Amino acid sequence: MVVATNLGFPYVGAKRELKKSVEAYWSGKISSDELKTAYQNIQKNHWILQKEQGIKHIPSGDYTLYDRVLDTAQQFGVIPTRYQHIHDPLQQFFAMGRGLQKPATATTEKVDVPAQEMKKWFDTNYHFIVPEFEPNQQFTLQNPRAVEQYNTAKALKIETRPVIVGPVTFLHLGKAAKGFDNFDTLSLLPKVLPLYIDLLKQLEAAGAEWVQIDEPALVLDLPDSVKAAFEEAYKTINAATSINTLVAAYFGRVEANISGLIPHVNGVHLDLVRAPEELDAILPQLNNSQVLSLGLVDGRNIWINNLAKSIELGQKAIAALGKERVFVAPSCSLAHSPFSTSFEKKIAEKNPELLSWLAFAVEKTKEISIIASALENGPESVKEALAANAAAIESRRTSAQTTNPAVRDRAINIPVADWKRPAGFSARREAQVKKLNLPLFPTTTIGSFPQTKEIRVARQKFNKGELSSEDYDAFIKKEMKEMVAFQENVGLDVLVHGEPERNDMVEHFGHLLHGYDFTENGWVVSYGSRCVKPPVIFGDVSRRGPMTVDETVYAQSLTKKPLKGMLTGPVTMMKWSFVRDDLPLKDVCTQIGLALRDEVVDLEAAGIPCIQVDEPAIREGLPIRRADWDAYLDWSVGCFRLSTAGVRNETQIHTHMCYSDFNDIFDAIVDLDADVLSIENSKSDEKLLKIFAVKKYPQEVGPGLFDIHSPRVPSVEEMSVIFDNVIKYIPKEHAWINPDCGLKTRGWPETEAALANLVEVARQFRAKYA
Hints:
Elements: E1 3-4, H1 17-26, H2 32-52, E2 58-60, H3 68-75, H4 89-98, E3 100-102, E4 111-113, E5 118-120, E6 127-129, E7 132-133, H5 145-155, E8 160-165, H6 167-173, E9 175-176, H7 189-206, E10 210-214, H8 224-240, E11 244-248, E12 267-271, H9 278-282, E13 291-297, H10 307-321, E14 326-330, H11 345-350, H12 352-355, H13 361-377, H14 383-398, H15 405-412, H16 425-436, H17 453-463, H18 469-490, H19 507-510, E15 513-517, E16 524-527, E17 530-532, E18 536-543, H20 549-557, E19 564-568, H21 570-575, H22 585-605, E20 610-614, H23 629-644, E21 652-657, H24 666-671, E22 676-679, H25 690-694, E23 700-703, H26 716-729, H27 748-769
Parallel strand pairs: 1-14, 2-8, 7-9, 8-10, 10-11, 11-12, 12-13, 13-14, 19-20, 20-21, 21-22, 22-23
Antiparallel strand pairs: 3-4, 5-6, 15-18, 16-17
Helix pairs in contact: 1-2, 5-7, 7-8, 10-13, 15-22, 17-18, 22-23, 26-27
């Protein structure tokens, strides 16, 4: 029969229960045993829910307390030396993910370790912890999560399909530990494979019939050596085990990368949302017994599936393979989707048409079951569901909510001059130096300051109508006044207003733009326990009116120092939203760029000397395959310039990028033509800095000196070492001093201490190089 399957589920819980439990454990409010009970209850509820939705292959092992790649590293003993003295496995795990700073006590030594490096997971907004490998790496299998979770589900009489991160993806996405720059991590494959085989045998012994081995690295541009590693890995696994293996590739097209491993697995999963053309390419490569898992339901977005088109694609697979060799699945894990539309009461009340177009994880599992039923028993067996789906698809196609002719006309008729600033950087810098009069090594922050409980409570009261607009405005002004005063007292040079009025760097602006709507519970994990609630772009985008002018002008009135206006760039506004899929991304981004251009011009007219337009998602949005890069970079860079090119020479344009390994697109970063670029740097050693010297980056740069995703406070000495490396690669007169990213998620005590140390670094280096 056709099998309804799933690759993964939103492990954070229906209403972020996991986040709350993990953070309670971090703060000492609950014990490790209580944390375990909490996450096992969430797991149980998710397994039962998927079973009730008709999913036959329910995933287990996809659940994590922080990150699945970090889980994999710890369970295989890939523990960098700096964490090995932490003997409690759970504390060690979290220390690797977020750092740990504990003072010495009468019975314990001081602990002060930073987190491991964090990178974007392919082209998603999820971040994973990068494993660190040494040439003499020793692997040990300890407490495998997949076995534990499979047994937990089995005890509940729920049969699941264990999920593990595959060996080649694990090694290929990892990095050589510091001091081993030329070390090929894939050379460790023969050492780690025996442990993978041991893990698979444990799962088989526990009773698992299938195991899902996630190998998303198959969608990358791979050299022949990595393709050979895939073949070697699965040939070895196949010879040593008898459990059914399903290798899952997602986020793009596999092309020829998969050919070598196909003969050695029992099934293959393809992302047919991103690459539907690959169905025809893969069918001739399968033998007479292999299964094909069809990724037909979009695991990355929130729009309803076109069931008729999915069924048509499924019927083609059945014609070639037969029903017994076809699985129906989402394109990737549903962990990248919100939990359920059933919580969206406001949209249901105010815009029921929009709600009819949405499907979150729970609804997507139902879509999978409907498609599987239609393929197994014929479309007539689910005709009511198909009719309702067809009506919603047509409603969206013809709705007046999705199209604004004036917006589209403006986007088509943009003057050529609007895409570029009229003068080059050298002329602009001369005007900016004269106007701003900044010292050597100017200090600033990336924008946001801690979102305290008081701020969150006031916002909630205002949104509920329990606090008047006047009282809320007075509260926000009080917060801004305190933040500006703090920055002056600590000695920063270019200030920010601190963003107390902003719940999120994308959602805040979405509320001020046409074409956006917002969920109540549309949370997805970004990293660790950090969740984001992306807004929904469902229609053409334009500005309702000035978005940031009033608060920025007020903050500037509180200080004689220059203050930055803070905006989120067009690519990030699009990429960090659930973006419409009925219009090319280039067109959506252009509409947003025009709206932001109007805001930038208004800020300059209001006297704001510096304007920061953040684009942390520009590298993340880069297509996975290099063949697709040029077209994307052309329009994404163009949209940034469109948003920032309407100002005079003396107005300084900043941009920020975090956790972006952008060496490969460095020329495009130059083409953004920002006056000051700030980047994540504190955990990236020197690899992000070297290219600035090699390419002779012409503009100013602020490589971050401390990791804002960790609660630890780095010392002056630690930051000085980092900045000493910075000025090896960046001309001193072009170097800024700042944190890695915004400080929204941090507490005030650590923020104050870290920024005081940062300003002291600037003071010492100015004295040295004055």
